[in-house]
Amino acid sequence: MDNTNYGLSSAKAKELFVSGKGNIQVDNTAKTTVDIIKENVFTYFNLIFFIMAILLILSGAFNSLTFLPIIVCNSLIGIFQEIKAKKVLDKLKVINQSKAVVIRDGEETSIPIDKLVVGDYVVLSSGNQICADAIVVEGEVSVNEALLTGEADEISKGIDSELMSGSFVVSGKCIAKLTKVGADSYISKLMLKAKNMTKASKSEMVKAIDYIVAAAGLLIIPIGIALFCQSVFIQGNSFSESIPSIVAALIGMIPEGLYLLLSITLGLSTVRLAKKKVMLHDMRSIETLAHVDTICVDKTGTITDNDMLVAEAILSSGSREDKQLLDTYCNLLSEYLGCLPDDNITMHALEEYFGFTTSRSCVSFQPFSSKYKYSSVEFDDARYVLGAPEFLLKGEMSSYQDMIECYAKKGLRVLCFAQYDGETGDVLDGRLTHPLLFITLKNPIREAAFETFKYFDKQGVDVKVISGDNPVTVSEVAKNAGVKNYDKYVDASTLDDSDIPKAVREYSVFGRVSPEQKQKIVKALKKDGHIVAMTGDGVNDILAMKNADCSVAMASGSEAAVQAAQVVLLDSDFSHMPKIVAEGRRDINNIERTATLFLVKNIFSLLLAVFSIINVLVYPLQPSQITIVSLVNIGIPGFFLAMEPNNKKIEGHFLFKVLLKAMPAALTDFFAIAALVVFSNTFGVEQTDVSVAATFLLAIVGFIILANISSPLNNYRLKVIIGCMIVFVLGAIFFNDLFSISYVSKPCIMLFVLFAIATEPFMRYLTKLFRFIELKFQIIFLKK
Predict the structure, then answer these.
(1) Which of 293, 298, 541, 587 is catalytic?
(2) Which of 84, 334, 478, 554 is most buried by its number of CB atoms within 10 A?
(3) φ/ψ (deg, to 5) at 377
(4) Helix intervals (H) in 363-411
(5) Same domain membership, residue 325 and residue 212
(6) Is residue 208 within 8 Å of 658, Cβ to Cβ?
């Protein structure tokens, strides 16, 4: 390709960029700092808190405003953590920013894609994602538009053909002129439409938290109105007397810290993973990876290093003695390589070993296709092919089977270089193919591969190795890497679509897999109920990656694969995978634990509010009392426990689990305090005494549930719980006025001691009951 005929000058490109004709990327997922501040400040519950604060001020109950500093701190912490995570991600995106080869001033140069301008001429080759709409001006490429259209076919694009941004080059090489860039490009318009439509599907945990928050948001309004009407119009209390108890009931029903907990936990995970050279395109992928029970991996670049080396070139006869003939074929292969535009690690290895020369012109060529497993070049006198022996030799394969399998069993990849005498475009008849050379290639296995797969085996994660190479070769590599069931392998080229569902249950190693088959394997696994992660580094992995529950790409792989993935390993080190899974498990387990604490308060407050309305009673607690209990039972322990590593395997449904775990404590709280209120009214105990006793009862049950969900207790968890107890006691002693805690009468103390003793066995038996319910539910769910 002659670059002197194309390209803008640097000065012209700069002028176009300044005038707004640059390829500025549209990102429908990125948040600005202003977005983060708005999301943390202007929330529905903050509005409710604001209204309640105004009502408390109007009623003169200033000591009941203790919840306000905590709400302000919640918002500030959320803003700080999200901005911190955003900065880390922004830095990683700059480091890992996609680049394009552009012709400027008659020379090829590599620049970030957002520095391109309309009218630029870019050089596209295998693995490149097309970053703006363009038209081909020289050369020919095969393009896959599956990410845009859903169709997996490879489409040939010659001169004057249009290229749509968002598609990617499978093979070939061309020069294309950019016609639409930035927001005007096809992919940008799709992304803008997506932004105006419904948001991306949320993970199970986020959905569960949304349900909890939505339910609370719907209930607080009618409950608040009912409490106000009951207190003012039925009991005849004044506005000033009614508001504090109503606010206390509503504060207890609001899960104000759940979203904060979620954003902080995921934000900290993002920062921790970034330090380990892991970039998340989608934070939801942390949760998904924690649930994964099947991981599909490619051989090259995942199990093995990206460096590929030619081990040996052997004549098709198997002889190593005819040096002259071997040199002749090696030179011919060098001329063959000089005609191909392919840019991949196999081609680099071949070029390094055989060299390449452009002295001989070719009539036509066909770049390597992962679908057909070969490439071809036609010279004036003959046509030659290079690819997988099974596809090139077909009927003649039996003559070379033993020799090829001998190398395959050593973990070597075998290529065949042959002369083809057929007239058809595709190599279909092995009898017309005359093998000249067999080339063996090797990839060193990654040092950490064995430990990585050992970790997945311990965690109950099934590994499927999916590769385009010979299944015997892949099996041997899998064996050396420590993959379980490495000996259960199959040649995918022998499988029909109807065979794949059965094959994914029987085999762990798949060889000679086409890109479409990779996609079908992932779909079959998901249909069987598995949560699937797919790792890859090439364009042939993209379709499967997009269909997996979570996709992981090596940064050293193709640009298109990196852009399509949810998780990118910036140093292309597969050994980071256990760290990502562990991080996800830490997040879900710790959020589940803290969400349980929130639900205890929410369910108890709802039940007690309804009880007060039905029995025409004053809600027995004050806002400041709810504040201190929430602080020592939820806020402080939730924050510190969320920092602790927690690699427990994720099982069951998030919402169902947290509800069942919260119910024993919530019901214990409700029955204990409801009984305390009834008995206190019977014995004429003052309302202020009842509220103080109820506060201590709440705290006691809170510490019991905290100990239960922290089981088994270790030194760290024990210190957190004891520390919270100390904070509660100190707060009650030194800040008793602030938290509305006063000395109580002897009858009230006696009732308090009675119900405090009863809470432990009552809660213990309730816990057993709900564990039994949870177990039954799991059995029913598993049967389905």
Answers:
(1) 298
(2) 478
(3) -135, 135
(4) 389-393, 401-408
(5) no
(6) yes
Half-sphere exposure of 315 (CA within 13 A, CB side): 13
pLDDT on residue 13:
93
Residue (of 449, 453, 390, 460) closest to 418 by Cα position = 390
Would you state the structure tokens that stand for residue 80, as one six-digit string?
């700080």
- Both structure tokens of 13: 């490109």
Same domain, 668 and 749: yes
CA atoms of 431 and 420, how far apart (whole Å) = 9
Claim: this prediction has a pTM higher than 0.90:
no
689 plus 613 within the same structural domain: yes
CATH number assigned to the domain comprising residue 663: 1.20.1110.10
Number of residues in the chain: 784
In a domain, 471, yes or no: yes
Alpha-carbon gap, residue 89 to 83, rounded angstroms:
10
Residue with tokens 């920013």: 97
- The answer to whether 421 and 435 are in contact (CB under 8 A) is no
φ, ψ for residue 565, nearest 5 deg: -85, 155
Number of domains in the chain: 3
Token representation of residue 581: 């899974």
Give catalytic status of residue 298 as yes or no: yes
Q: Do residues 652 and 762 both lie within one domain?
A: yes
Specify if 688 maps to a domain: yes
Strand 294-297 relative to strand 462-466: parallel, antiparallel, unpaired? parallel
Place 699 in a pLDDT band, splitting at 50, 70 and 90.
very high
Residues forming a β-bridge with 14:
none
- State the chain's mean pLDDT as an integer: 85
Q: For the chain, count helices (H), then strands (E).
A: 27, 21
Domain-located, residue 339: yes
**CB-based contact 100:531 (threshold 8 Å):** no
Match 């899974």 to its residue by tokens: 581
pLDDT, tens digit, 9 for 90 and up, residues 620-639: 988 889 989 988 998 889 87
DSSP states of 447-499: TTHHHHHHHHHHTT-EEEEE-SS-HHHHHHHHHHHT-TTTT-EEEGGG--GGG
Q: CA 461 to CA 453: how far, in whole Å?
A: 9
Question: Does 141 fall in a domain?
Answer: no
pLDDT tier for residue 152 given thresholds of 50, 70 and 90? low
Is residue 454 located within the same domain as residue 552? yes
Sort 306 into a burial class: Cβ within 10 Å, 0-12 / 13-18 / 19+. Answer: middle
- The C-alpha atoms of residue 353 and residue 334 are separated, in whole angstroms, by 9
Q: In angstroms, what CA-CA distances link 727 with 532, 577, 720? A: 45, 40, 11
Q: Which of 572, 602, 637 is the last residue of a domain?
A: 572
- What's the rounded Cα separation, in Å, for the pair 162 and 145? 12
Do 715 and 656 reside in the same domain of the chain? yes
Please check whether residues 400 and 498 belong to one and the same domain. no
Q: Tokens standing for 87?
A: 């900065």
Q: How far is the C-alpha of 76 from the C-alpha of 39, rounded, in Å?
A: 11
Structure tokens at 729: 């006691």
Give yes or no for residue 268 having a pLDDT over 60. Answer: yes
Closest CA to 104 of 228, 1, 7: 7
Nearest to 299 by CA among 576, 505, 490, 574: 574
Contacts of 53 (CB under 8 A, 6+ apart): 65, 68
Chain segment 94-141, per-residue pLDDT in tens = 555 678 899 998 889 999 888 999 999 999 988 788 888 999 999 888
Average pLDDT over residues 10-35: 81
Amino acid at 76: L
Show which of 401, 419, 442 is a domain's final residue.
442
CATH of the domain at 466: 3.40.50.1000
CA angle 185, 191, 196 (to 5 degrees): 130
Give the pLDDT mean for 58-76.
81
- 707 lies in which domain range? 201-270+590-783
Q: How far is 100 from 550, CA to CA, in rounded Å?
A: 27
- Same domain, residue pair 453 and 431: no
Cα atoms found within 13 Å of the Cα of residue 739, Cβ hemisphere only = 25
